[in-house]
Specification:
By secondary structure, the chain is of the alpha/beta class. The chain has three domains: 5-266, 2-enoyl-CoA Hydratase, Chain A, domain 1 (Alpha-Beta Complex); 301-478, NAD(P)-binding Rossmann-like Domain (Rossmann fold), CATH 3.40.50; 485-559 and 586-703, Orthogonal Bundle (N-(1-d-carboxylethyl)-l-norvaline Dehydrogenase, domain 2), CATH 1.10.1040. It has 30 helices and 19 strands. The strands form four sheets. Strands 12-11-10-13-14-15-16-17 form an eight-stranded mixed beta sheet, sandwiched between helices. It has a six-stranded mixed beta sheet with strand order 1-2-3-4-6-9, with helices on both faces. The protein has a three-stranded mixed beta sheet with strand order 5-7-8. Bound molecules: (S)-3-Hydroxyhexanoyl-CoA.
């Protein structure tokens, strides 16, 4: 035992308590502590059984993820978990593992080596390793199918999704759900089984199935993974490893698992996913806003504008239990907005996401209104009216008049300056941007835009609120397009240039989907409506620098009324199921337009397509970082993963660039600069870091940035 593991006794039952806050990860010292406690227990004849439990808020949530970086960089590490698990299983006194919170990854593996498992009903168990690009590495793929059966083990290890105690009981992963005090229940259970032969999970083969039934189960699992987890190595390895459990002895199965675990751990995918895990947690840490900063309690809210965004935001608030006033200017628009909300809820009920009762409860939290009556009581207003500065200013003037002092006045603008909006009020400290992504009730990303005057209290409240709403809030600075859309501009610009230069519409989309992106850049334009960008470009044409090339084919499509899915024609044509079908008419039109413009089309490789689109993101991201509009490169990654369908196994655009090597990225960007002109001028930060042999990740850590 040591500081991390304590041994106590409840008469004839020994209690081993793991105390490694915050989540009792199996950091160095924990396995050693448990092992030391077992040695003491073996020598104590008065002990008849053992309870293994976690102190604090949870049982063991897994291996210490921070240790993986040490393993892949060759730093020395402990003996691993496997010997400890065998020692537990082979002990002569029954070990009862008592679970609360989350028994995840190595935590569940530890629990399965015990002879029995009991849990409180709120506990969850799971093998989430695939979410980190690895597979269970301490016999999880060997013991779980023995307890839960092959099909359940496959589901848990390939999706990484946890299950609740009741389900774990049903599948034989735990033996009893404890009502009331967990330790007391576990000790009672321990006395019931003391002295009886203790079952060893690794010797239980009855749920491993037979070869012919298993063949169908494995092939269906492989098909599902190929479809739903395209390009990911770990889910495939998890299936292989569970298959080994059904075909080999336990010891051989463990060796097969180790080999696959190590292969996954050393993969670029795993390093990227681990980066994502820590980045998601780092995003809420803001250097000049300490954790203790006071926040405003948001008990009620109002949304101005019942269009697509306003309606979605209203649902998000109502879903989180916050009563919300929904204001529109006229009855027809309000009715339309409410009808959409109602039908979205009906769809969720139909799809089994929640019950009719839950849907009604959510809907009833929304109070439609045509006036500002009642706004004086709310703690937060989110404005989501049409994207125009004059209108926004008018709304904010009105809000200032009707809202109580101390209420947060937020704008859902996606392009307009927060400082200018804030200046139209006399309380700019309470004005902030909350940029939701469409559909707001689905997309996880929330850009929180800090104005020059926005108070720390208001920022801390909005960061906290993002969690309450189930969103990932990322603090960004106030520049045009903020972070996400500012980068998305050059990305879609390149996609269009590539089509104009001869790459082919479908080939451009395919290259980026093959890269792993969830969305096709041209098809996504059709989905959002090509007219949206067209209108913005027309409004901002006066800002374009003369002599800098602009794409034009998309504007021409709009001039022909091809706005995308809403007109059943854009870059693609659409059938009645809204499926995109290549349209020879567009191919012909583009060829004609570019010939008239004097562009000579050429053959373009998939590699050039991805390099140009992804490096356009990276180059703009580097400018944003250097200008201080994002706090860290990893914040930009989180924005792209949660708002733009960038593949998590590539870690986000900035991380991806770091993995390619900034020297290589800089050289390629410089080459594009020579070929395509000013739009490709390398960002100064990219140039500097490439010359210094550094990464974007180091920039955030070493130099820091300010939003
Ligand atoms: C594994 O087990 C492999 C095995 O097969 C064995 C192979 C040999 N390690 O999320 P939170 C930190 S792989 C290190 O904000 P919550 C986290 O960074 C592992 N640190 O809390 C944060 O730090 P900070 C399989 C960890 O209540 C703090 O704890 N297990 C770990 O919202 C609080 O975390 C997993 O993948 C860890 N394992 O959620 C489980 N876990 O405050 C991963 C957390 O400095 N963890 N931290 O930012 C989770 O899913 C969630 O953290 C959990 C709690 C649900 C447990």
């Amino acid at each position: 035992m040591n500081d991390l593991v304590q041994l106590t006794k409840e008469y004839d039952v020994a209690v081993i308590t793991i105390n490694n806050p915050p989540v009792n990860a199996l950091s160095p010292g924990v396995p050693e502590g448990i092992s030391g406690a077992l040695d003491r227990i073996a020598k104590d004849d008065s002990v008849k059984a053992v309870v293994l439990i976690g102190g604090g808020r949870t049982f063991v949530a897994g291996a210490d993820i921070k240790e993986f970086g040490k393993m892949t960089s060759g730093k020395p590490r402990g003996a691993g978990l496997l010997p400890l698990l065998l020692k537990i299983e082979d002990g002569s006194k029954p070990v009862i593992v008592a679970i609360h919170g989350t028994a995840f990854g190595g935590g569940l593996e530890l629990a399965m080596a015990g002879h029995y498992r009991v849990a409180v009903s709120s506990a969850q168990v799971g093998q989430p390793e695939v979410k980190l690009g690895i597979i269970p590495g301490a016999a999880g793929t060997q013991r779980l199918p023995r307890l839960a059966g092959v099909a359940k083990a496959l589901e848990m290890c390939t999706t990484g999704n946890p299950i609740k105690a009741e389900e774990a009981l049903k599948f034989g992963i735990i033996d009893r759900v404890i009502e009331g005090d967990l330790l007391a229940g576990a000790v009672t259970f321990a006395r019931e089984v003391a002295g009886k032969p203790a079952p060893k999970t690794r010797e239980r083969n009855e749920k491993l199935g037979n070869a012919s039934d298993n063949a169908a189960v494995f092939s269906s699992a492989r098909e599902t993974v190929a479809k739903k987890q395209r390009g990911l190595l770990a889910p495939v390895a998890a299936i292989d490893s569970i298959e080994a459990a059904t075909k080999m002895s336990f010891e051989e199965g463990c060796q097969a698992e180790q080999k696959l675990f190590v292969e996954c751990l050393f993969s670029e995918q795993s390093k990227s996913l681990i980066h994502v895990f820590f980045s998601e947690r780092e995003v809420s840490k803001i250097p000049d806003i300490p954790k203790e900063t006071a926040t405003i309690s948001i008990k009620s809210a109002a949304v101005v504008g019942a269009g697509t965004m306003g309606g979605g935001i209203t649902m998000v608030l109502a879903n989180a239990g916050i009563p919300v006033l929904l204001k529109e200017a006229d009855q027809a628009a309000l009715d339309r907005g409410l009808a959409t909300i109602k039908s979205n809820y009906a769809n969720s009920v139909k799809r089994g996401r929640f019950s009719q009762e839950a849907a009604d409860e959510r809907f009833n939290r929304i109070t439609p209104t045509l006036s500002y009556d009642g706004f004086s009581n709310v703690d937060l207003v989110i404005e989501a009216v049409f994207e125009g500065m004059a209108l926004k200013k008018e709304v904010f003037k009105e809000l200032e008049r009707v809202c109580k002092p101390g209420a947060i006045l937020a704008s859902n603008t996606s392009t307009l300056g927060i400082d200018e909006i804030a200046a139209s009020t006399s309380r700019p400290g309470f004005v902030i941007g909350t940029h939701f992504f469409s559909p707001a009730n689905v997309m996880r990303l929330l850009e929180i835009v800090r104005g020059k005057a926005t108070s720390k209290e208001v920022i801390a409240t909005c960061m906290q609120l993002s969690k309450t709403l189930g969103k990932v809030g990322v603090l960004v600075g106030n520049c045009r397009g903020f972070v996400g859309n500012r980068m998305f501009g050059p990305y879609r610009r390149e996609a269009q240039f590539l089509v104009e230069e001869g790459a082919g519409i479908e080939a451009v989309d395919k290259a980026l989907v093959d890269f792993g992106n969830a969305m096709r850049p041209l098809a996504v334009g059709d989905l959002a409506g090509l007219d949206v960008g067209w209108r913005i470009r027309k409004e901002y044409r006066h800002l374009e620098v003369p002599g800098i090339r602009q794409p034009f084919a998309e504007d021409r499509l709009c001039e022909l009324g091809r706005f995308g899915q809403k007109t059943e024609a854009g870059w693609y044509k659409y059938d009645d199921q809204r499926r995109a079908i290549p349209d020879p008419v567009v191919h012909e039109l583009v060829r004609k337009w570019v010939t008239e413009a004097g562009i000579v089309q050429r053959k373009i490789s998939a590699e050039e397509i991805t390099d140009r689109c992804i490096y356009a993101l990276v180059n703009e991201g580097a400018r944003i970082l250097e200008e201080g509009y994002a706090l860290r490169a990893s914040d930009i990654d989180i924005i792209y993963l949660n708002g733009y369908g960038f593949p998590a196994h590539r870690g986000g655009p900035m991380w991806y660039a770091d993995t390619v090597g900034l020297k290589k990225v800089f050289d390629r960007v410089s080459e594009f600069h020579r070929q395509h002109g000013e739009t490709w001028r390398p960002a100064p930060l990219l140039k500097r870091l490439a010359e210094q042999g550094k990464t974007f990740a180091q920039f955030g850590k070493e130099e820091g940035a300010a939003v």
